[in-house]
Amino acid sequence: MTTTTMQRTLSVDDAIKSRHSIRKFIQEPISKEDLHQIFELVRLTPSAWNLQPWRFHVITDKALKEKLQEAAYGQQQVTSAPAVAILISDMEDVLANLPETVHPGLSAERQQDEVANLSSFFGGMSVEERGQWGLTQTNIALGFLLTAIQGLGYASVPMLGFDQEKVKEILSLPEHIKFAAMVPFGKADAEGYEHHRFPLEKIVTYY
Asked: Which of 81, 136, 179, 187 has the most CB atoms at less than 10 Å from its CB?
């Protein structure tokens, strides 16, 4: 972690409370060190059976961002941001490499059993069903990503308003993947709206 990153790191509490969706960014590149730190944090996201179906495609190339902006119906934040993360779920890649997900601390026999059980469970699903299952897990990583970006002094905006088939074509992504979000991010050059959220009484029920 760089010294500048350490100086501006927010607490989890402050990162969550200060995060707003931002659509205009300062034209300043994000250092490789900070990009690395963001995704080092995000890769710690928990998932069922530790399957980790999320995959991140991080675009900083100007020409590619212009193509993504066109696929996103011209939304300016795509090219305003110095970086755009495309967060996808790829359960077919997970299934092709199941042994990588099993904890190495388990005995060889337990590892083999885990792989066999997971293969049987997901093998009974269609590609579409597996994709939707993986997407529920990948959305957890999306929350971690937004918090990590904010916590390291940057701003972001999660988007689903884009032509998914065009983005698959631009990035040569396989047909079976599922999109969690397109996330432009960088240093904010605007202020977001004040939070407008439901009160706890509406969303939390205690028993």
From this structure: 81
HEC string of 121-158 equals HHHCCCHHHHHHHHHHHHHHHHHHHHHHHHHCCCEECC
Would you say domain 3-190 falls under CATH 3.40.1160.10? no
What tokens were used for 53? 């179906």
Residue 25 sits at φ, ψ, to 5 deg, of -125, 150
Give me the sign of the Cα torsion angle 85, 91, 92, 96.
positive
Tens of each residue's pLDDT in the chain, 207 residues: 443 444 578 999 999 998 999 999 999 999 999 999 999 999 999 999 999 999 999 999 999 999 999 999 999 999 999 999 999 999 999 999 999 999 999 999 999 999 999 999 999 999 999 999 999 999 999 999 999 999 999 999 999 999 999 999 999 999 999 999 999 999 999 888 889 999 999 999 999
Contacts with 190 (C-beta within 8 Å, 6 or more apart), sequence order:
22, 23, 24
The amino acid at 147: T
Q: Are the beta carbons of 190 and 24 closer than 8 angstroms?
A: yes
Beta-strand pair 54-59/83-89: antiparallel
The whole-angstrom separation of Cα 59 and Cα 68 is: 9
Residues 111 and 102 sit within 8 Å (Cβ to Cβ):
yes
